Amino acid sequence: MKRLHLFEFEDLPWFPAFLRDYGTDFLQFMANQFDFYKGIVPLLKIGLEKSGTSTIIDLASGGGGGWLKLVGRLRERVPGLKIVLTDYYPNLKAFERIKKVGGDPFTYISEPVNALDVPEELAGLRTQFLSFHHFKPEQAQQILQNAVDRGMPIAIFEVQERNWKYLLQHSFSPISVLLTTPFIRPFKWGRLLFTYLLPILPLFIYWDGLVSVLRTYTLEEMEAMTRALKGGERFSWEINRIKSGPTQVLYAFGYPREE
Ligand SMILES: C[S@@+](CC[C@H](N)C(=O)[O-])C[C@H]1O[C@@H](n2cnc3c(N)ncnc32)[C@H](O)[C@@H]1O
User: Fold this and answer.
1) Considering its fold, how many domains does the chain have in total?
2) Which among 14, 22, 24 is the best mutation to test ligand 1's pocket, defined by most ligand atoms within 8 Å of the CB?
3) Residue bearing the CA closest to ligand 1, atom 11
4) Could you tell me the CATH number of the domain that includes residue 26?
5) 124: left (phi > 0), else alpha (psi -120 to 50), else beta?
6) C-alpha 87 to ligand 1 mean position (Å)
7) Ligand 1 centroid to 88 CA: how many Å?
8) How do residues 152-187 score in pLDDT, each as one tens digit?
9) Is the pTM of this model over 0.90?
């Protein structure tokens, strides 16, 4: 299936922040409820070792993704674990909640952090969940290049793939939104209003999810990006699928080779 970079509401600067936040809260709820990232813990552990730190710099964190579930498993394996949540449009209410519920390991950055150009002082294993497809090919390449230039390991994860199966599967997302909304935290009356009375939220999540499927890079496309990196020979790359919880996760994992 050809890659189509249609617009996602979430990416539009004028899109109301509270609706964007309701969208990323939904993703956070689903990822933790269904333990999407259970299978990637060993990979994160290796990434941390390769970074020479116990810090994860999570880029494009949205509502915090699957971290609340992941932190328990990772904390027992990584002493001094620190997870820094960042985003270009930070969902601060969600970051505060994750910090409160998830405890010590979490910190967050209140100002926008652009995944295309991560500040040098943010050292550690870079992670990106469900966000690599937001970037056009030259920007996606820039994200990988930035990690190589700074010598920082990077792990990118997507739970959808660009094919008919995922397009079909995704057509049920409005039902998931209708069924899960009352259980999503932080509780907001607005979330109920824009789901059940004015159903903007199920429609926006449906559209953005559909476009996400059409934008997702294949394993071959990600491999081609890593081959085109300047200085890419300084990095080892692992690009594959892994069974994880009820789903399959697509990942690209790169780290500096040992000298
Ligand atoms: C689909 S959400 C994924 C959120 C979260 N990682 C998760 O797994 O639920 C994509 C996120 O990418 C963020 N984003 C878009 N462009 C960005 C950029 N240039 N730099 C950093 N984050 C960006 C959006 O604000 C949004 O929170």
Assistant:
1) 1
2) 24
3) 60
4) 3.40.50.150
5) left
6) 6
7) 7
8) 999 999 999 999 999 999 999 999 999 999 999 999
9) yes
